[in-house]
Amino acid sequence: MSNSNDFTIDIGEMPPCSTNEKEAAKKHWLSENPLERISSFISDWTPFGLVASYFIFSTCLYTYCSEGLIAVFWFIYMCTNFYIAGATVLEAFMSITPCREARKIVTQAEEKGWLFPTAHDKLLVLDLLIVAYLPNEQDIIMDRALYALEQIDYPRDKIRINILYNTPKAIEPLETELHQLPLKYPHARVIKVPNSTSKADNLNYFLTLNTGSDLIAIYDCDHYPHPNGPRWAVERFMADEEIDIVQGRCVVFNTEDSFLTSMIAVEFDKIYAVSHPGRATMWGFGLFCGSNGYWRSSLLRELKMDGDMLTEDIDSALRAFSRGSKTVHDLNVTSYELAPTTFPAFWKQRLRWAQGWAQASLKHLKMVYNKPQDPLHSDYNRSFTARFGVLSLLLIREASYYLVTQYTCLVLSFVITKFPTSGEELWKFVYFQYPVSQWLFLISIICLVATLWITHQVKSEFVSRRMIIIFSIQYPFYLVLMATIGLYGHARQIVRYSSWNPTARK
């Protein structure tokens, strides 16, 4: 690759997008067909009815259980809580080493005047994709495109910034402005994906194009990649030829928008800076998380994205792991993104994730016991540790939604049958019904404090100590909320709910 012209490809005339006509016809048919409206209403509200019935039935059932049976349930739920807390704190402690290594690498680069190990002319060719659903992200796409084109520090003859978007209707003058970007920025490519209705469609269309790149980076439209993020990621590939995927750290930057965004920011610091690298160290495998992820082009073009999966990113990550591909988490590959600012937007986003994880778990749980089938990795065999890690990630995590909510229902039954008259009695009902509960509860609290302390050590610049303290105080309510969302996702999967609700951006 000697210049940006080497990136030129001819994708020909794009066929007219018929999504507008399909959606309009569907809406018209729904408005004219009362039976279909009723069916749609039932499909939307059946999951709610299932989850509500689950809580009501479970709570009522516990009010009729004997004291001995209640004691058994109580012990099971407290032990489960202990396991979850213990696994979480182990992941947190395991994350200390990769965090230290990431800081050490940054310090070394700074001491050398930010001279990276690989010379510019030896770097791998990179396709960086910004994937957008235009009606939802029309207010931010130009800003993110210009940022990527102007701020990312990578040799321009080695990188192409690809703006991939789909839209059910023409949006002007924005689309014209987007398609004019390559006139000013030779390393830009703008593609309106024909007949696309999802992120998976956009990516799969791009993967049919022969761009000649070595690596492909995937970003959602709301992201600001750190200027050095792509360089850090490519250096990981250059240093280890066995690496197939590099997943970076995602940081929420709109913490001041609302209380909700500040709590999501703490959650993301805990997930991306602690849980992901800690789990990869403990279980021996990492995961591509949907954005700020870098793939070897050959692998991604082979696997593609499964458009039938709500979380096609997790599915592709698990398919890559199932065949022996190596994924690493790099804390220096940083990107900044938006968190939902309202609870309805947050609820829709997490429901989509929950149902998608349920789909992926059902599909890939067989990795716990089966043998890798990929002929290109015939010598690869998953270790016992990796298999148990898959079991914990796909089965125990999904089952924990029921255990957490069952514990909640059990406590509600105590409140109903033995309504406390003081705060002391309520405290006893919630945690100290039985002597063993005291030990399990105290150990779980210690695990939580240790996890959040480690999170505090690696928190982003947008998260304060106060935010972490507030997050820790409301953490029990957060667990119940996330477990409820998990159940809702299962209920949606049961009724085969398939609507795709993109996260609102502004």
TrEMBL record:
One of its GO terms (molecular function) is glycosyltransferase activity. SUPFAM superfamilies: Nucleotide-diphospho-sugar transferases. It is found in: Membrane. The chain crosses the membrane at residues 399-416, 436-455, 467-491. InterPro entries: Glyco_trans_2-like (IPR001173), Glycosyltr_2/OpgH_subfam (IPR050321), Nucleotide-diphossugar_trans (IPR029044). Its main location: membrane. This is Glycosyltransferase family 2 protein.
